[in-house]
Amino acid sequence: MRSDRNLRETVIELTKATGVLPCIKLHEKADFLAYAKAMYDGGARVIEVTMTTPGVLEAIEMISTEFKGKLYVAAGTVLDPATAREVILHGGSVIVSPTVNREVIATANRYGVPVYSGAFTATECLTAMEAGAAMVKVFPAQLGGPKYMTNLRMVFPEVNLIPSGGISTENAAEFIRCGACAVSGARTFMNLDKIREEGLGWITTQVAKYIKLVQDAKQNLPDLP
Question: Which is catalytic among the residues 48, 58, 61, 158?
Answer without folding.
Answer: 48
